[in-house]
Specification:
mainly alpha, globular, Fun_TF
């Protein structure tokens, strides 16, 4: 099974990952070499069988006529992964290990890629948070070998997952948001995530999520609108070109593209989601910003998604654009729909197809608010894997 999976990965999945690695070198491997394969055989099932799930999931996405047979094999492999994780949870010396956290995070990614319900991946994230709490919290956990890449994956799953979840069902509570701020202050420069999402914009997303979670509590209403405008101002003064130059002088253009796309998307998320919970008013000023940023995001994605290197990096901004393609804006809806299909076909994952179904339901509903778009939690993330190489290298020493 694993030999066949490795061969399929090298022929069909790896080539689609390689262009992205010019920008994010630690977010995947383009080839399962004999050395990597040999090392993988010594890992527990919850790590090594991910290769089989990845290859089967890719084949299912691109071969609808073989879906039933492939799904049977996929669910069998996923069951073995869950059993392996359960064995470690029941082991006194392994139940709070970094390796267990890495395994659960990988299962989250497997489930998200297959478009599985939030009742699956949210459950896994809750388990990780319990393990981190047993280890003394984020700060204590972060000091262990290989923990930082695991934490940044966990952070992006929770934070971006909340952007596309209804305000009544957000994953991160007030105390947990304070932990995120603390981690950002101390480790932002070490987290490879912020080669994809600029750290100032990620912080803005955290703050927007926090305001959304507070909006339902009328006792916390005072000052929320002022705080929302402060967040919006911080986003608007962010300079993509300066950020890009700080990341790479040789790839400044690529990083500028990423930064412009995320700046526009985060601006639109800020205005639309906070208007949805009546924290921001509907004004001509904000409408003009929305129009300008929608145009900027569409232009940026039109150019970027013609290049393979960006196909795995800009799914979330594309979904945001879709959530703003309201009413009879059929050209924008067609643009989003076609590019989601292209990303799904290129990456071999179901997540863009899930996004298409969510957006098409929203477009047909006649509704216009952010929370009407996302009636249950979704996660729109399309990177291939979890960075755990540091963790396993440390173990082999």
């Amino acid at each position: 099974m694993l030999v066949e999976a490795a061969d399929y990965f090298n022929s069909h999945i790896g080539p689609s990952i390689k262009p992205m690695l010019d920008i994010t070198p630690k977010f995947g491997v383009p080839v399962i070499s004999p050395i990597i394969f040999q090392h993988g055989l010594g890992y527990p099932d919850h790590t090594r069988l991910v290769l089989a799930c990845t290859s089967l999931g890719h084949r299912m996405c691109l071969n609808a006529d073989q879906w039933n047979a492939l799904n049977h094999k996929f669910l069998y492999c996923r069951g073995l992964i869950i059993n392996s994780l359960r064995d470690e949870i029941n082991s006194e010396d392994k139940k709070t290990s970094n390796f267990l956290v890495a395994g659960i995070l990988t299962l989250v990614l497997v489930d998200v890629r297959q478009g599985m319900s939030h009742t699956s991946w949210r459950y896994h994230l809750n388990a990780i948070r319990k393990i981190i709490n047993l280890r003394g919290g984020f700060r204590s956990f972060s000091e262990s070998p290989g923990a930082i890449p695991l934490l940044h994956s966990f952070m992006v799953f929770e934070v971006l997952g909340d952007t596309s979840s209804p305000v009544s069902d957000l994953a991160v509570n007030e105390d947990q948001i304070d932990e995120l701020y603390s981690m950002m202050d101390e480790y932002a420069e070490e987290m490879d995530l912020f080669r994809i999402i600029p750290a100032p914009l990620f912080i803005a997303i955290i703050k927007i999520n926090r305001l959304r979670s507070r909006a339902a509590d009328l006792s916390l209403r005072d000052g929320q609108t002022s705080e929302a405008y402060e967040i919006l101002y911080a986003i608007l003064i962010f300079l993509p070109e300066d950020w890009a130059l700080s990341k790479s002088k040789t790839q400044e253009s690529d990083f500028t593209t990423i930064a412009i796309a995320y700046k526009a998307a985060v601006t639109l998320y800020c205005i639309s989601s906070l208007q949805s919970v009546a924290v921001l008013p509907a004004t001509h000023y904000l409408t003009n910003i929305e129009i300008s940023m929608t145009r900027m995001l569409k232009q940026t994605l039109s150019k970027a998604l013609c290049s393979a290197k960006f196909m795995r990096l800009l799914l979330w901004p594309l979904v945001v654009l879709g959530a703003l393609a309201l009413g009879e804006n059929w050209p924008m809806q067609d643009f989003v729909r076609c590019n989601l299909l292209a990303i799904s076909e290129y990456t071999g994952i179901y997540t863009p197809q899930t996004a298409t179904k969510v957006l098409e339901r929203f477009w047909a509903s006649g509704e216009s608010s952010w929370d009407s778009c996302f009636h249950e939690p979704y996660m729109f993330w399309s990177l291939q894997g979890i960075e755990s190489r540091t963790l396993w290298k440390a173990k082999r020493k």
